[in-house]
Amino acid sequence: MKQRFTIPMPARYGINIGLLVLFLIVGNLIVGGNLLPRAHSNNVIQVGFFIILAVSLNLSTGYLGQLPLGHAGFMAVGAYAGAIFWRSGLLPSEASLVVGLLLAGVVAAIFGVLIGIPALRLKGDYLAIITLGFGEIIRVLINNLPAITGGAQGLLGIPRYSTFLVVYICVILTCGAIHMLMKSRHGRAILSIRENEIAAESCGIKTTYYKVLAFAASAFFAGVAGALFAGNLGILVPGDFDFMASINILMIVVLGGMGSMAGSVIAAAILTSLPVVMQPLAQYRMIIYALLLILVMIFKPSGLLGTYDFSLSRVIERLVRRITAGRIKEKGAK
Hints:
By secondary structure, the protein is mainly α. It has helices at residues 9-32, 38-63, 71-88, 93-119, 124-143, 146-149, 164-183, 185-195, 197-202, 207-233, 243-256, 261-277, 285-299, 312-333. The protein has a single domain, classed as ABC transporter involved in vitamin B12 uptake, BtuC (Orthogonal Bundle). 75% of the residues lie in helices and 0% in strands.
């Protein structure tokens, strides 16, 4: 029996790392070299932190099977934590960037644990309502702490650390970390809770622990995305983190496919780029945007990719098999 062609695991990692490095180099030359108009360059950077937000929310919605509506709250916590640290100027810029991003993620994760422990005992609509309330409480607190957050007038003078290279290194690390988590035994436990929580608990899986773990990890990466958001704009106002911000992030996840990381990446790129692409049709932009979402939900209710996750190695393997099969047929015909 003939063996099917498979790419060895070290070669898979080598191919992926090589392509990612190539993407970073080419992207940095184009965006960092100002070869694109400023609006398009800024849009490319925005796509990056929306990918992080969508992929992190997918961890708690698509993989865990819960429905939180307060993701913008974690983003806000991370944004203000990172921005306040960066403005302090305690460290040199390179060290400050790394520490600020980690601080933003850790502070958001702490809030994720504090909210997750009581909230994740609820399900469905109740979980959505309590997380929505959390997001609004965070926004109100930011508004009413002008001495720390700048209040309604905004937090100004934030160093603009969010370059193309910084944002997309964070995108790659986020996707890689979540991918490795879901391929581990902890990830399998999280997936089992989504499929059947009662069965998972009866098998000895600590459902509360894994729910809080997934929720905290999701909040951590949302906090990092928030800090990148702050480092891109240079100013933060509470209105950036309202209820609609959470809905927009959830919309990206649903459009891409709940449980598909590749789907979240594609949907984030599409929905973030649409406003820029459709600037000539400014009057009809929201109508086209709504129609697109309606059509996808009617004809592809599971999202663009459903639960499918793209694998470059699998694509290469299939191509090699088809080429090999074609050559064997040609030899047989001769």
